[in-house]
Design a protein that fits this description.
The protein is an all-alpha fold. The chain has a single domain, classed as Orthogonal Bundle (Helix Hairpins). It has 3 helices and no strands. Helix 2 packs antiparallel against helix 3.
Amino acid sequence: MKLNEMREKTVDELQNAIVDWKKDLFNYKMQLSTHKLENTALISKTKTLIAQAKTVIKEKQA
């Protein structure tokens, strides 16, 4: 999801997306520890998405 798409969503939708991304991040970390994760870049991309969504939520609340 791009930053422009995030800005169009409501705060509740963003919070739900953050929960989903955190679940994905947990799964990626578990796969990494068991050496089943092929694309390790997914971890950093997911962290970036979570941070961007949190930033957009703060912008909307201000």
